[in-house]
What does this fold into?
Amino acid sequence: MKITAGTEHEGMRLDAFLAAVVEDLSRNAAQNLIDKGAVLSEGGASLKKNHRMTPGEAVCFDLPEPEDSLLIPEKIALDVRYEDEDVIVVNKPKGMVVHPAPGHSSGTLVNALLYRCGSGLSGIGGEKRPGIVHRIDKDTSGLVIAAKTDFAHRSLSAQLASRSLSREYETIVTGHMKTSSGIIDAPIGRHPADRKKMAVTDKNSRRAVTHWQVIEDLDGHTHLRCALETGRTHQIRVHLAYIGHPVLGDTQYGSKRVIPGLDGQCLHAASLKFIHPRTGSRVIVECELPEYFLNMLRKFRTDG
It folds into this structure.
C-alpha cells in the first residue's frame, strides 16, 4: 500500500499520520508496523515513528492479514420488531455494539443474532458481520435490519444504494433552529487528524445529505426528526454539529460536558421502511422513543 501526505499532514509524526489516514489502523498498530521496519519511504528506506511528514511525501507498507476470531453465539435478549424467513429487525439498546470489533469481541448484536438465528444469517457481510446490512453506533438506539439469506442481503444492500430503504431518526440537539425544516448537503470523509472521527470535508469524501424537521422546541434545545438520503458514518452527528446544533450528549462532535442521565448521544433510529426482498411489498417498522430519550424531553420541556 502506498499513501501520500497532503498539505494538512505537514509536520505530523509518521505513526500519527498512518493512524489518521488508514481506516481501522490504531496508532499503536501503526507504531508496531514501523518498529518492525514494515513502513518504507518511496526509495525503500525504513522510517522511524517520529519521522515528520512533508506534503507530497509517500510511504509504502503492507497491512497484516486480520487474525481469525470465532464468533460465539450468546444468549442475549433481543427486542425483535419484525421477523420472517428472510429478514429480522431489532430495536437495539443504547450501549450495544452491532458487530465484533477490537475491544468488543462479545456482547454484540451479532453474537445475539447468532444465538437466535443459528446458521440462518446471510454470509455476505463476512464472518465478522453475518447478516449485517447496515449498522448504527454503539450509543445510538433503535432499529437495525439484518438479512437471514444472501438473497435478502443483496436486495437490501441494493435498496440502501438506491435509497429505497429509508431510515428516520429522532434526536435532541442543542440550540434552536432558525427554520422548521431544512436539508444539509455537505460531503463527509475521514477527519484529517483523528481517525476515529468523521468531518465535513472536500478531501477524500463522499456526498452526504440529511433532511431534518423540527418536532418540538424545548428549553435551549430542539427535538428533531432526521431522514437519511445517504448513509455515511456518523452522518447525522457530523452534519448537525457542522451547522452548529450538535446532538445532545455527543461528546465526540459536540460539548465534552457529560449530561446527567444520558450516557452517550441522544439519537434514536425510530423508523425503517423497505421493500420486502421476496414479496415486493412495502414494510414499515417503527419503534417508540426509549426511556432515556423521554427523560431528556421531560427535562427540557419549557412547560415543565
